[in-house]
Amino acid sequence: MGSATREALATSRAALAAHADWADLATGENLFDAGRVIGDSSQLLAALGDASAETSQKVALVRAIFGATLTPAALELLLSVAAGRWSSQQDLLAAIEELALRVSADSAAPDVSIRSELFLFGAAVSSDAELELALTSKLGKSSAKVGLIQALLSGKVSPQTLAIVRHLVQQPRGRRIGELLTDAATIVADQADSIIATVTVAAALQPGQRDRLAATLSTRYGRKVALNEVIDASVVGGLKVQIGDDVIDGSVATRLKDLRLQLAG
C-alpha cells in the first residue's frame, strides 16, 4: 500500500467513524453498487483515480453521476474517496469496498456474526470444486453468480452477509473466492475492533477451551480475538493457530515431524 493510499484511506475511515448514524445496510449496498459502476467504466475509474486531477473536478463528477441515486451517507463516503489521492486505481476500488463492508458490518443486529457466516460459507465453497468454479469462472455471467448466491444463502444468512457475498462474486478484482471471503471477514472483524485467529484442531474445542484460548490470544495481541475453528484430523492432537502471518503450531503432528527431522539430521 502506497503512502498516498494510506493517507486517503485513513481520511475515509475517519469520515465513517465520525458518523455512527451512517450504519445502515442500504448505505452499504449503495457503496457496493457504486464501486461496481466505477470498476466497470475504465473512463470513470481513470478520472477518479487520477492523482493529478483537481479534487473539485472529481467531487463534481461523483455528484453528477451518483448524487440522485445514493443515500446521503453513501454519497458523502463516496465523495471522501473521490477527494483522496490514491496510489493506484485498484486502491480506490478497494477503499470503496472496505467502506461498504464496514458500514454493512455496523448495520447488523448484535447477535449476528457476519465474520462467522463468511467463514462457514468459505469452508463450504472450498470443499466443493464445482461450486468454486461456478462462482469464480471468468466465463460465468455475473447475473448467474448472483442467482446462485441467492439460492444458496437467502434466508440462511444475515442480509448483510448476503449483500457482501453478492458483491464479491461480481467484483472479485483478481482474487479467488477464498481470498475474497477472508479479506471481507478481516475488515468486518476490524470494524468490531477484533482480529481473527484461525484455529486448526483434530476435534472441536469445548466452549470453555474456546474462551480460554481467545482470552490468552487477546492478551498476547492486545486486541479482542475472534476464533475460526477448522477441524483437521491430520493435526493428531494439540492445535495450530494462525493470526495474519503469525503461526503458533502446537500440534502433535508438527512435533513428531520436527522430531523425525532431528533424528534424520
- Portion of residues in helices? 55-70%
Query: In angstroms, what is the radius of gyration?
Result: 21 Å
- Helix/strand class: alpha+beta
Segments where pLDDT lies below 50 for 5+ residues?
none
Would you count the extended β strands for me? Answer: 4
Q: How many angstroms does the end-to-end distance come to?
A: 42 Å
Give the H and E element order: HHHHHHHHHHHEHEEEH
Give the amount of beta strand, in percent.
5-15%
Number of helices: 13
Overall body shape = globular
Determine the oligomeric state from the structure. Answer: single chain
The biggest sheet, with number of strands, parallel, antiparallel or mixed sense and barrel status, is: 4 strands, mixed
Estimate the mean pLDDT confidence: 92
Strand order of the largest sheet: 2-1-3-4
Map the helices and strands.
Layout: H1 3-17, H2 25-40, H3 42-48, H4 55-66, H5 72-83, H6 89-106, H7 114-126, H8 129-136, H9 142-153, H10 159-170, H11 177-191, E1 194-201, H12 207-221, E2 224-231, E3 239-243, E4 246-249, H13 252-264
Helix pairs in contact: 1-5, 1-6, 2-5, 2-6, 2-10, 4-5, 5-6, 6-11, 7-11, 9-10, 10-11
